[in-house]
Amino acid sequence: MRQATGWVIAGSSVLFLGSALLWRAQGYALEWNQTPSLPRGLYSCRAVTKAAPLPPAVLVTFRLTSAQQAMVPQAGAGLMLKQIWARHPHEVCAQGDEVWVDGRLEAHRPLQEQLIAGWTGCATLGRQEYFVMGRHPRSVDSRYYGPITRAQVLEICTPLWTWGGEQ
């Protein structure tokens, strides 16, 4: 019985690995989110290759620019996973601990006083700019480092198996 179980586990592992490699070759990846800014868990992500505008409310992975990293060193240099909250032609304002989109209060910035620097002011988002946020109120996101550009976006993601997180 033990030997049969071992063969089943080995066979399943080979099948899973082969499927993952084929899936990756087709432009897909699995990303594991371990931060509370969005529900923790496994996400299916597809590489973004077109320069077309991204739809609102999708989840994207991206990397911060060095200037953005300098504003929020806590974020690190790794891959970020956030939701597109606003895009062209919306106006986004960050003043004190409040974030406004088109004149509506959308979020607070409870970490503002803990950060060394941060994005402040108002901006009308350009065609290639996106304001991204996590669902958790203490998420380190565009509330602190400002809009990201289309060139920073690497993938569009869909939750596969997740739990927790602010809704």
Short descriptors:
four-stranded antiparallel beta sheet, 11 strands, alpha+beta, seven-stranded antiparallel beta sheet, Umud Fragment, subunit A
Largest sheet: 7 strands, antiparallel
Number of strands: 11
Structural class: alpha+beta
Q: What percent of residues adopt helix (DSSP H or I)?
A: 10-25%
CATH structural fold name? Umud Fragment, subunit A
CATH architecture: Ribbon
Describe this structure in words.
The radius of gyration is 19 Å and the shape is globular. Strand 1 and strand 2 form a beta hairpin. About 5% of the residues have low confidence. 20% of the residues lie in helices and 37% in strands. The strands form two sheets. It has a seven-stranded antiparallel sheet with strand order 1-2-11-3-4-9-10. The protein has a four-stranded antiparallel sheet with strand order 7-6-5-8, with no helix packed on it. By secondary structure, it is α+β, with helices and mostly antiparallel strands. It starts with a helix and ends with a strand. It has a single domain, classed as Umud Fragment, subunit A.
Offer a concise description of the structure:
The protein is α+β, with helices and mostly antiparallel strands and 167 residues long.
SSE arrangement:
Elements: H1 2-25, E1 28-33, E2 40-47, E3 59-62, H2 66-71, E4 80-87, E5 91-95, E6 98-101, E7 104-108, E8 121-124, E9 129-133, H3 142-145, E10 148-149, E11 153-163
